[in-house]
Every structure is written in structure tokens, then in C-alpha cells.
Amino acid sequence: MLFQWGLRKKQPANSATTKEQEQSGQAKDVPNGSLDTIVNVNIDIVQRTTGNSSDIVIRRFTIGEENPIHAAIVFTDGLVDEKIIYNFLLESLMTVNIPSSFSPKDLFLFIEQKLAAVGGVKHVQQWFDVFSSLLSGQTIIFIDGIPTALSASTKGGEYRSIEEPSTQLAIRGPREGFTESLRTNTAMIRRRIKNPNLWLETMKIGEVTQTDVGIMYIKGIANDEIVEEVKKRLRSIHIDSVFESGYIEQLIEDQTFTLFPTTYHTERPDVVAANLVEGRVAVIVDGTPFVLLAPAVFIQFFQAVEDYYARFDIATALRFLRVLIFFISLVAPAVYISATTFHQEMIPTPLVIAIAAQREAVPFPAFVEALIMEVTFEILREAGVRLPRAVGQAVSIVGALVIGQSAVEAGIVSSAMVIIVSITAIASFATPSFAIAISARLIRFLLMFLAAMFGFYGVIIGLLLMTIHLCSLRSFGVPYMSPLAPFIPANAGDTIFRVPTWAFKERPRLINQANIIRQGENQRPQPPDETNNE
Amino acid sequence: MKRKAFFLIVLFMSMTVLSGCWSRKELTDLAFVIAVGLDKTKDGRYMATFQVVNPGNVAGATQRGGGSGGVPITLYKATGDNLVEASRKGSQKISRLIYYAHTNLIVIGEEMAKEGIGPLFDAMERNPQFRTTAIVVIARHRTAEEMLKILTPIDKLPANQMIKTLQFTEKTWGQNISVHVGEVINDLTSEGKEPVISGFRLVGGVQEGERQTNVQESEPDARLSADDLAILKDGKLVGWISGKAARGVLWGLDKIEQTVITIDWKHKQEAIAYKVVRAKTSVSADMKKGKPVVSVHIGAEGDIGEALVPLDFSDPQEIFALEKKIQKEIRQEIIKAIERAQQEKSDIFGFGEALHRSDPQEWKKIKADWNDTYFPQLEVKVSVDASIRRTGLRNKPYMFGR
């Protein structure tokens, strides 16, 4: 209510700025309307529109000897595979001999059907389409006398090669991670799901950047309503730029004012493939290795890829551990604060004396002590992420030695507090999803405040509010806490437990309703003699 | 309207925040009372002695500045007409808030115990900070204050030393019993059972014991050790019960876990040691011809721990004879204990409660006179079933081998 009130006031100002942006970014510079018939006019327009940018390569030439027809090809240097252009376009276009009777229209068709030895050739008539294909790596062929250009697919250029993902590592499992190229990414998913029902729809988002965004889903498994909802939300985005899937994520998520992520992002193609098969929708954004998956549920952030590759007993044990880890990273400092300032009777006598002895010399209340250490740690972590690698090591030395040891020796913090902060830090690093670890980071501070004011009572109130909030969240209409709340017994096997693979009978019910059966009957392996008897 | 709602919300939110830190108390503001001693002054007032932990000096708690010079505990005394008054008055002398949540030991001076411990526990039970699991002991021949002054080695906190001594000796030797406040209160209020509390003795002088030098010697001059069991009647200390009879009390209360029974064999005294590893006592009471009859059955299992006479343990006959002897020994222990209790007219075994359970109607008639009339003349049948499970790693003793 508070937030809405604030929003409503700001809204008019917001919409005004977007309108201005639209005018200045798009409509003014790119000429409207269709192409001219004369090549030189068209080239002029291209040059004018791109401001003679040096990476726009324009090559004029003529086709035919007796009755030469003027033509030109235009491409963006660096975005194209030059070999394709030279070998399969330029060479054939410049050396071809055509009968003098050829009209430009005949030539146009002849080029399209015989000469352009590349995969995709499209007709473009609108300037808007010309520029969008030119700037995404297509080669445009203008021919005199025809108000249509050919756009040949010559995408190429330098990309980062496929490397091991740097965020979600696994000991067992595929090593490749997504790259910045949309096409490479979709190919990696296709390689895993060789099924014609894996559909890919692309659209351009970003009025200025014209970023390619792909929506991938398996027709027949994904819930059509959710696919439609994703598309609807994507279509309604009007923003000047998209540089990372985070832009999209923030514009399509169900609720902004929540500390929890309601879409899942991953760098691993195997995760995306597995989620597509479960019926989720993937949103792939060109220029980032992070692919969005929707809808996301809470428990998904505790599922590491290896859970499904390792045997179920180990996977279940690790799941338990991860939930515990999340809980520790959430409440450890809060519990320390409440136990040492409100509930001293709950600590065993030898321990309370040991902690009291350490705190003898500490001048601050436990809460301030915890806050100092937590903030220091957050500073260290932030520094560690941003600093160049060479300096990073120095930071960790300073952090470990100075903060850890000297702070205790100087009597600013107690060593028990250092232990608490360390275990919290390690726990937050051990959370499989960074998105949820970072939510825990924020909630931890809230819980610390509550603990400092009300002790365990406050911590419990905080956790209750968090649970209520979690239960109220939706991700593309799917309850965030499902299949725990609402409880769906058929899907409960993949929550804090991970049942054996043969027991995964159904896909998540709330995510897809059409096609829930996942595997055949009797998938449980049997010893050979028993099967022989049957 | 919206502005109003906004302010209302802010006001409501600050309401919760403003009440914050209500019962906040920092660790450095607390005086952890680890043991409380209770004595009577000459003018009949209560004197409470607080053994307060000095956290910085408890060795092992911290390396930094720990253990050097200082003593791990400090005593504070306060007198008052009742315990709460004495406790609050103590704040005049202690720089921190007196905090009872970690009080694990109550020491009652012998004089105080003789006058009656009945009213002592009300304040402890009523105070939410206080734990009713705090162990109660009685200072033999001494005041509680003197007992609490003694510094102890190994377990630096004297209270811990006493509690752990009591618990482990109960477990392995079985002549002492650790009772906590809750049990004492139960026994005090029960009509068919009287409390029995372990005594603690101070060996050596208080002067030596209260100094740091006491713990710097390999054999401290002043030491605390668990002693006889105190028999109470109507909340007053009436007598002590010691040695094998004290173990008999534990047999009767089904508190024996492990112990050692030594028996004579063929004219050699204390020749064989029998280690009890499991024991179970069941008590049943009945009215027979208008008289209460109690039967106690003890089942014990154990090993041979030591044999100083020639004996062939591979011979079942020998084992049976040995078992008989052991049974007789255990039986004597408990009969001694019962006789002692009957002498003091105090039903420390809870036979009255057993009767209450089996025959509530009759119990109602006799409960008023139970301790003074019926219990001293009670007929108690004791049967013991002891069995030797193992003989250790040898059959024949090596001294008499071949």
C-alpha cells in the first residue's frame, strides 16, 4: 500500500520520459517508408543514417557487361563472416555473365535463386528491416531499378568460445556453458533436445539496441497459457536498451517488491534443457550467457544440477544440507544476537561463560558487534568481486588477517562473532543459486535488526513474515512455494527430498497440465532372475 | 486521507519498534551465579552466598589474558529475612545483574538443614530464571559459605567440580545421589516419600582452600568430596547414612547403574569384586491382614572384576555359589539401609507412594501416621537376583594357575 502510493505519484513523470526516448532514439533517425529504386539513393540513405560509420562497408559494382546494372552490397564489418561474403556473394555477383535482355527484376530473381550461395536470403523493402538486418550481421544487396533489397545471412564475427560456466559448477555433468551469442546458445539447447516440438520464437526488444530475444519451449509440454503470458509480457516491453537478461527479468517478473527472485537464471545448457522438458519457458537474450527460465519456484533455487546426476541418496542428503545452509546463512547472526542479549539461559553454561569471557573486552553491544563484522564482510566480498584479480589476492589477505585476527586482538569484536560471520559467509557461498543467496543476505540484516530488538521472538516474527510473503508470491501465475504450498504429493519427491529417478513419474503439475506423464511404468531396475521369472 | 493512512501506518510501525530491546541484557552486564549457598545467621535470618563466575579467569574460556593470576569465581554474601530480599540486597555488592539461569548447584549448610529446608525452595521454583534442575547438596559439618570458598583443580568452577563428582560417583560407585531442586520439592510435598540428599565434605581447611595456591599444588590442601547421605524428615535433617547402607538406599531407589560389590570367599575377606553393570529394582506394596507389606526385588547383572582366591570360573557350580553370596551381600546392604531409615522414622524409599498406588483406599487411612507408626514397623521382603555374565578376560586367577 505504501509502495503503491508512492508509485502513483511518480507515474506521469515516468511515462513522459519514455515517450521522449522513443522519439529521439528510433523514429527520428531511421527513415520511414520503403526503399528507392536507385542504388545510389539507397546507399546515400544508408550512409546518412549511419553517419558514415566506418564499420559499415559499402561495395558498389555492376553486373553484366553489355547492359550493366548497378548494384551494391552493404554489410557491417565485424558482425559478418567475410569469407562467406567474398566467396559466395561478391565473387559470383561480380563475375557472373548475364544476358543483356535481363531486366533488373530478372536479375533480382536470378541472384536470389542461383547466385547467393548462402543459407538464408530474405526480401527487404522497408528501411527499418534493412537496418535491423544490416546491424545484426546480414549482408544487404541493393540492385538498381528494384525497390527491394536482398538480405543474405552472413552472420559471423568474433565471439567468446564455449567455455566451462563460471557460476554453476558441477563435478559430474557437462562442462559447457552458454556464450554471448544467441545462436550458439540455442544450438546448445537444440543439441540436447532433438525434437521438432522444441520451438524457438525470436523478437527484438530494445528500441535503440534492437536486441534479439528468443523464447524457447517444447510445444505440447509447456503450458500454452504460460507461453502466451511470457510472450505477452515480452511484447509489452518498451525500453531503449537490453544488455543482459536481467533487464528482461526485471520487466517481466510478477512482483518487483520482493526480496526473492521469481525467475531462474542459469549459465548451463543442461539446466535449461531439463527445465524445458519439465515444461518451463526459456528466454534467451543475445549478448549474455544467462538464460532466464520461467516460471520459477522457491525450491528450484536449492536444486543443483548434480542432484539429478548423482544417486538419489546422496542427492537427498545434499538437498537437506542446502536447505540447512540457506537457513544458517539467514539466521546465524540473528540467533547469536538474540541468544547473547536476550536468552542467555538457552546457552549451555560452559559456552555462555566462554562467550562472556570473550566479550569481556568488547566495548560494543552484541548487535553493533555483529553489524560491524557483517558490514565488513560485505565490503570484503564486494571488493573481491569487483577488484582486478591481481589486487584481489591482496584484499583477501588483508581481510583474513586484519579483520579476522587483529580485530579480535584489538578487542573490537569477539572471536565467537568472527566464527559466526565466517560460517554465515561460507553458508551463503554454498547456496547453489546466487540469486537466492543474495536474498538471504538482505533478509539476514532485517533479521539481525529484529533479533536486536526482540530476541528470538523477533526472529520468529521475521521468519513468519518471510514465509507468509513467500506463500503469497507467484511466478507467472504459479504459486512460488509449490509443490510444498499448495502441497502436491505427486511432485513432492523433488523438493527437499530427491526420490530415485524411476520414481519421477510426473512433471510439475502446476507448470504444465497437458502432458504430465514423464516416464513409463516399471522403470525401477530389477535383478535379472526376477524379470526372467515374469 | 492517504496522508493520514500513511502516518497511521508509520505510527503503528514505530509502536512495535519503540518497545524494542525490552529485556535486553548484554553478557558483560550479567553476573552468572553458578552456585548458591544457603545458611542461617545467628539472629535467624537467611544468608545467601553467591558463587559468581569470573569469566575472564576461567581457564580454557579464552587464551587471551585468561587464567593468569585471577581466581575463576568470586563470592558475594547477603543477608535477608527471606531469600528474595537477600538476593536483591546482594546487588549492593555486585557490579552486575545477578543472573540465576545458570545456577546449577544449591549448597545448604548443615545447621540450616537441621532447622529445615522446607521454605527454601519456594523462591527458586517461583523465579522463572532459576532452574529446578539445579543439584542440591548439604555441607557436612560446615556452612555453605565455607564450602563455596574452596577452589578446585581440573574443573575450575567449584560448582561444576561438585556436580560432576556427584554425578560420576553415583554412576560408578553408587553411594551418593544427585537430586535436583524439582525432586526435592516433589519429595517434600509427597506424603509417602521423604527426600534424601547427598552431603559434601571439606577435607582440609578453608584458609588454604580459598587461595589460588590451593589449585597450584599437585595435592591440594583443601578438597571437596562427596560424603554420606542425609536423611530428612518433615523437611529437617535428622541423620546421616553412610557406606554400604548408603548404597542400600540407592538400591532401594533404583538408582544404581554400576557399582562394585566385594564378597568374602572361603575365609578370605573381600576376596572377590563383582562389578554390577545393570541393575533394576522393583518395589511393590500391599496390605496384608491390615498391615502394609512391601517387597523389594532387585535384579543385577555383572562381571567379575577381581578374584584373589583360587577359583575355577569355568565350573558352573562355583558360579552359582558365588551368585548366591553376591545376592546375600546386596540383600544385606539394602536391609541395613531400610533399618537405618526406620530408625529415623523417615520413608526415604517411597514405600508409602508404592502403597498409595496399589491400595489408595487403605493409604488414605494410614497416611497420617505412616512415617511415625507404620513405616518403622514395616515388613520389607527383599529378594535379590544377581547373575554373573562374564568373568573378564581370564577364567582362573593367574596366581593360582596350573
UniProtKB/TrEMBL annotation, chain A:
The chain crosses the membrane at residues 320-339, 416-438, 445-466. GO terms for cellular component: membrane. Residues 12-26, 515-524 have a biased composition (Polar residues). Residues 1-32, 515-534 are annotated as: Disordered. Keywords: Membrane, Transmembrane, Transmembrane helix. One of its GO terms (biological process) is spore germination. Belongs to the GerABKA family. PANTHER family: LEUCINE ZIPPER PROTEIN 4, SPORE GERMINATION PROTEIN. This is Spore germination protein KA. It comes from Thermaerobacillus caldiproteolyticus.
From TrEMBL, chain B:
Residues 228-392 form the Spore germination GerAC-like C-terminal domain. Pfam families: Spore_GerAC, Spore_GerAC_N. Keywords: Germination, Lipoprotein, Membrane, Palmitate, Signal. It is a lipid-anchor. InterPro entries: GerAC_N (IPR057336), Spore_GerAC-like (IPR008844), Spore_GerAC-like_C (IPR046953), Spore_GerAC_C_sf (IPR038501). It comes from the Bacteria. Residues 24-198 form the Spore germination protein N-terminal domain. One of its GO terms (cellular component) is membrane. Transmembrane segments: none annotated. Belongs to the GerABKC lipoprotein family. This is Spore germination protein KC.
